[in-house]
Design a protein that fits this description.
The protein is an alpha+beta fold and about 425 residues long. It has helices spanning about 20-30, 85-90, 110-115, 125, 160-165, 200-210, 225-235, 255-270, 285-300, 310-320, 350-365, 380, 395-405; strands at about 10-15, 35-40, 55-60, 65-70, 75-80, 95, 135-140, 145-150, 175-180, 185, 190-195, 220-225, 245-255, 275-280, 300-305, 330-335, 340-345, 370-375. It folds into two domains: about 1-185 and about 390-420, Uridine Diphospho-n-acetylenolpyruvylglucosamine Reductase, domain 3, CATH 3.30.465; about 190-380, FAD-linked oxidases, C-terminal domain (Vanillyl-alcohol Oxidase, Chain A, domain 3). The longest helix has 17 residues, at about 255-270.
Length: about 425
């Protein structure tokens, strides 16, 4: 793995295999004033501001000694370097799974996913990563080993400090080990795809399902060139797919009879709601359609993620689709209606066009008081902005927390909100 980041290369690479080695690496680095950037699988390492300093790459992919699955308690304790796909495979053998999902599970590590609070489509029904962490072991910048929470679901050991580290991007400490609550594998899964000519019909059907009698496991409304790609990838239609601007993907799970009822409700809503067409996808078609979203995010040169109330994210996409700016017509969006998050994508753009997309997304986000993260953009653009949205007066509290946990600014300096 190449450990260069945002045009910077480390002078040293460390690969700790266990907790003792990890603690020593950090203690030594902190004592010499070296700046450390932790690495997992690298799938989300680019999310964050340009580092103000980068001396040591801390590769945690070898930190995989411990994996303790207590199937009877429906919990698992795992070292941070374990890949998500490997953990999922171990859980599936016992009929269980992680309640959340992340992109690129074949490469992503558990620690990196938790540190970056990686998003996934399953968040519509189960919530995000933070909701399922019950304990954590963290190594602070000076090598001190700390713990938060525990190994069981019923846990009363002080403050849930592991929530502070989830989504902190490794700026407060390096996650060494995590304990999760688990859920059973669903007996059946099914995907329904519907496509539309207009945003009003697409959004009305989507929100009817979000507020319906069951919670879809995933419900994503795509707009722009990506919508046509999703429909084509499903194998349902091809000759006229390029004209499609809106496509709704709905993933269902449950028992056989429950799935039948859910499919009937989704197809009924789509048919009555003005869908141009809809289809109940077979296993391969559903897998291809959902994979197309992940592939599009990986291939895009500029990616922005906006969160807010679902009604506001709908407004953002609608205004974006009618924006007269040329760049707006080349942006694709994925609106995860179940939890109020938009992913805006643009590919193959020049630095000037990328800056135009970033400015457009930020402008529309601010209009509805949404928060955003520019997850990927050209380096020339990244150097000129804070990739995280303004958090207002909260930034002073965040700076004090950073100073308390990492007074020497050893971990990920300059990369977090406000370039902390």
């Amino acid at each position: 793995m190449n450990h260069s980041l945002d045009g910077l290369s480390p002078s040293k690479l460390e690969r700790p295999k266990n907790l003792a080695e990890l603690s020593k690496v950090l203690a030594d680095a902190n004592g010499t004033g070296a700046a450390v950037i932790p690495w997992g699988g690298g799938t989300r390492i680019g999310v964050g501001n340009v580092p103000s300093k980068y001396d040591i790459a801390l590769d945690l992919t070898g930190h995989t000694e411990h994996l303790e699955h207590v199937a009877g308690d429906m919990t698992v304790i795992v070292d941070s370097g374990v890949r998500v796909i490997d953990l999922s495979s171990a859980l599936e053998r016992e009929g269980q799974r992680l309640p959340f999902e992340v992109r690129n599970p074949e490469q992503a590590t558990i620690g990196g996913s938790v540190a970056s609070n990686g998003p996934g489509r399953r968040q519509s029904s189960a919530g995000g990563i933070r909701d399922w962490v019950i304990g954590m072991q963290i190594v602070l910048a000076d090598g001190t080993i700390t713990k938060s929470g525990g190994r069981v679901v019923k846990n009363v050991q002080g403050y849930d400090l592991h929530r502070l580290h989830t989504g902190a991007f490794g700026t407060l400490g390096v996650i060494s080990q995590i304990a999760f609550k688990l859920v059973p594998l669903p007996p059946e899964q099914q995907t329904v795809l519907a496509w539309f000519d207009d945003s009003v019909s697409a959004n009305e059907v989507g929100m009817r399902l979000v507020n319906g009698s069951f919670a879809p496991e995933g419900i994503s409304l795509t707009y722009g060139p990506l919508a046509a790609e999703v429909v084509k990838s499903s194998g349902e239609i091809s000759s006229t797919a390029n004209d499609i601007k809106w496509a709704l993907l709905v993933r269902l799970s449950g028992g056989v009879r429950s799935i039948e009822r859910q499919v009937n409700e989704v197809t009924g809503s789509a048919g009555a709601g003005g869908a141009t067409g809809y289809a109940v996808l077979d296993h391969d078609g559903g897998k291809n359609a959902w994979s197309r979203l992940e592939l599009a995010e990986s291939a895009a040169s500029t990616v922005a993620r906006i969160t807010g109330r679902t009604v506001d994210t709908i407004k953002i996409v609608e205004t974006l689709s009618s924006d007269p700016a040329d760049i707006a017509h080349r942006i694709s969006t994925i609106n995860d209606l179940g939890f109020g998050a938009i992913t805006a994508l643009a590919g193959g753009s020049t630095d000037h066009e990328a800056k135009g997309m970033v400015d457009t997304v930020i402008r529309h986000s601010k209009q509805v008081n949404g928060s955003y993260t520019i997850e990927k953009c050209p380096l020339s653009v990244k150097r000129e902005i804070d990739v995280f949205s303004d958090v207002g007066s909260s930034i002073e509290v965040m700076r004090r927390i950073k100073t308390e946990y990492d007074p020497s600014n050893t971990l990920n300096p300059g990369r977090f909100v406000g370039k902390i």
